[in-house]
């Protein structure tokens, strides 16, 4: 491996998902001299990346992809004070393809950015990571990669996965030199581009051999195109792999901590928002991740904690496993408390009632619904036979949401009692309760009360008209907001 001398000219990212797509796009955008190709087995996903509508919604993603994928003409732009700046023309250097073998074979650096879900969805015990995708992609890379290529774990993986990758490479290409790095991704969905452009840190784990350190230096150069070198931290492979699991576990732990305190607040008259502000002013604690609410969702926090618990169990560290399991227990407890409270406020039954759900994504500014608290809430509510569950989310595709809910239930009866709307007012009309389950900006008070606010808009054309019972919807939504705040 002699990346420093030769310089990185070609990068291939295997996996065009929420991490692979945006990460590769930003690397290409910031390194016009490097050819970056994102490959995926999912042809439909690749087609979308090659269209004007990427398969995922992230603020800023479209613009970055267009510049890097399509290239730009030279331009002169005006800046403050009457000065102008010349922007050079740039050629396309971001490509999306299904030809995994060819693209891998051309790359100096290959990112592994495939899905690493959990094998189990309950919380009673830890769960090993499902390594099927990672093992498959590693095999494909092992067969195709050129000698000396640097293989980078971008996926979140159990500690010591680099050894599995190394063994797989050795089985398929005995004696061929490859270097393996760990470079976990810390972006958060909804702010992926912002996080990638201005990361808190870039973490690179490598073996402490001469070639390992050289490979780390080559990857460091790629990031140094836009990230200050002082923010690029190099550590050993196992510290890097474990850091990602621990970072997510500790973020989730803060959410469960404040949510557990919200239960105490509700019975004592303390206000959890006031409390969060008061304790967050302590510089040792800081204000972030102290917002009580429905608990965390998304594809990462729960699975990474399950993976950490599993690791502790396999190391016979039972108390440690138990400690981290509690973070998940409180998360589920909080969601159940919310649903129970809704049902209690509706006189103990949902039968014959319409319940509106505003927000279905697991957080604002994303269309991702994986492990969304809303999914679990809808599931529990539907079990109580409401007349209708009416769902509106500004970014989630209504057809996808409808299909997803159908899959949650075995009986067609229950599946039929939910409807997905393209308009928040339609979803809210004649509802007994409006539950705001994703904190999209347009659901925030006070815009909610303004007649022509963005409240109702989805990606579909807005359908607000004068016959809609706006006032009723607005009042109910306000009431729901208050109830939500009370719970929080
Ligand atoms: P994803 O499911 O959106 O994307 C993974 C992609 O990999 C899929 O499109 C799949 O088709 C593709 N794939 C699987 N096997 C393949 C193979 N052999 N060849 C080619 N393509 C293959 O997953 P994601 O959300 O992007 O997550 C990827 C990894 O990043 C996971 O390990 C996850 O834990 C981690 N991560 C995710 C986030 C997040 O916010 N989503 C943040 C940080 C880290």
UniProtKB/TrEMBL annotation:
Catalytic activity: UDP-alpha-D-glucose + 2 NAD(+) + H2O = UDP-alpha-D-glucuronate + 2 NADH + 3 H(+)
Protein name: UDP-glucose 6-dehydrogenase
Gene Ontology biological process terms in this record: glycosaminoglycan biosynthetic process; polysaccharide biosynthetic process; UDP-glucuronate biosynthetic process
Record GO terms (molecular function): NAD binding; UDP-glucose 6-dehydrogenase activity
Active-site residues per Swiss-Prot or TrEMBL entry: 300
Listed EC numbers: 1.1.1.22
Superkingdom as given in the UniProt entry: Eukaryota
Keyword Cytoplasm belongs to the record: no
Binding site for NAD(+): 40, 45, 116, 156, 189, 303, 370
Metabolic or biological pathway, per its Swiss-Prot or TrEMBL entry: Nucleotide-sugar biosynthesis; UDP-alpha-D-glucuronate biosynthesis; UDP-alpha-D-glucuronate from UDP-alpha-D-glucose: step 1/1
Enzyme class name: oxidoreductase
Similarity comment: Belongs to the UDP-glucose/GDP-mannose dehydrogenase family.
UDP-glucose/GDP-mannose dehydrogenase C-terminal domain segment(s): 356-460
Protein's UniProt keywords contain NADP: no
Residues binding substrate: 186-189, 244, 289-293, 297, 363
Source organism (scientific name): Amorphotheca resinae ATCC 22711
GO (cellular component) term, any one: nucleus
Keywords noted in UniProt: NAD, Oxidoreductase
């Amino acid at each position: 491996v002699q990346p420093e001398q030769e310089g990185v000219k070609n990068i291939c990212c295997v996996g065009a998902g929420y991490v692979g797509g945006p990460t590769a796009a930003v690397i290409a955008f910031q390194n016009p001299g490097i050819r970056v190709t994102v490959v995926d087995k999912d042809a439909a996903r690749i087609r979308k990346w090659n269209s004007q509508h990427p398969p995922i919604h992230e603020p800023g993603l479209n613009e970055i992809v267009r510049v890097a994928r399509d290239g730009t003409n030279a331009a002169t732009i005006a800046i403050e004070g009457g000065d102008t700046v010349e922007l050079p023309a740039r050629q396309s250097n971001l490509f999306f393809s299904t030809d995994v073998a060819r693209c891998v074979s051309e790359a100096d650096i290959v990112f592994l950015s495939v899905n690493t879900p959990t094998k189990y969805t309950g919380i009673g015990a830890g769960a090993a990571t499902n390594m099927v995708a990672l093992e498959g992609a590693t095999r494909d890379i092992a067969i195709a990669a050129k000698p000396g290529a640097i293989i980078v774990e971008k996926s979140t993986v159990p500690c010591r996965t680099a050894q599995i990758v190394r063994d797989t490479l050795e089985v398929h290409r005995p004696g061929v030199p490859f270097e393996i790095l760990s470079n976990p991704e810390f972006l958060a969905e909804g702010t992926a581009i912002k996080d990638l452009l201005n990361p808190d840190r870039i973490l690179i784990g490598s073996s402490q051999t001469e070639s390992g350190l050289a490979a780390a230096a080559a990857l460091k150069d790629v990031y140094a195109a836009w990230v200050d070198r002082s923010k690029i931290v190099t550590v050993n492979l196992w510290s890097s792999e474990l850091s990602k699991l621990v970072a997510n576990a500790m973020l989730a732990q803060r959410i469960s901590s404040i949510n557990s305190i919200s239960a105490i607040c509700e019975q004592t008259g303390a206000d959890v928002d006031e409390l969060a502000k008061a304790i967050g002013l302590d510089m040792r604690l800081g204000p972030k991740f102290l917002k009580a609410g429905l608990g965390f969702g998304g594809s990462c926090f729960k699975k990474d904690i399950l993976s950490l618990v599993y690791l502790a169990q396999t190391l016979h560290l039972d108390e440690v496993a138990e400690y981290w399991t509690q973070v998940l227990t409180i998360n589920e407890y909080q969601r159940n408390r919310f649903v129970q409270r809704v049902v209690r406020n509706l006189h103990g039954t949902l039968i014959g009632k319409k319940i509106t759900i505003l927000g279905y994504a697991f957080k604002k500014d994303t269309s991702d619904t994986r492990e969304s608290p809303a999914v679990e809430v809808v599931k529990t509510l539907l079990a109580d036979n409401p007349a209708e569950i009416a769902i509106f989310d500004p970014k989630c595709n209504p057809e996808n949401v409808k299909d997803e809910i159908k899959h949650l239930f075995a009986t067609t009866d229950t599946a039929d009692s939910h409807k997905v709307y393209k308009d928040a007012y339609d979803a809210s009309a004649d509802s007994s309760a409006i539950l705001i389950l994703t904190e999209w900006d347009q659901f925030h008070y006070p815009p909610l009360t303004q007649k022509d606010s963005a409240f109702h808009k989805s990606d579909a054309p807005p359908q607000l008209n004068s016959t809609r019972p706006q006032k009723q919807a607005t009042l109910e939504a306000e009431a729901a907001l208050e109830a939500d705040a009370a719970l929080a």
